[in-house]
Design brief:
Layout (H helix, E strand, L loop, with lengths): L1 H28 L5 H25 L5
Helix pairs in contact: 1-2
């Protein structure tokens, strides 16, 4: 259960990093690159993955 909390925290930090990099690319590239879209796509994928893992963990009774 503690490993699940650590996994969720690390995944959440990766989501925040991806969001920050998208913001950085938005200002740096001024809309002339696809790096911002790629960063936001990664963030969405990580968020969905975290949501699915949390739903499965809740269903299995692994969350306190």
């Amino acid at each position: 259960i503690k490993a699940l909390k650590i996994f969720a925290a690390v995944l959440f930090l990766l989501i925040l990093y991806s969001l920050g990099s998208a913001l950085y690319y938005m200002y740096k590239d001024k809309g002339h690159s696809t790096r911002m879209v790629r960063s936001l796509s990664i963030r969405i994928g990580l968020s969905l993955f975290l949501f699915i893992v949390m739903m499965i963990a809740a269903r299995l009774g692994m969350l306190d």
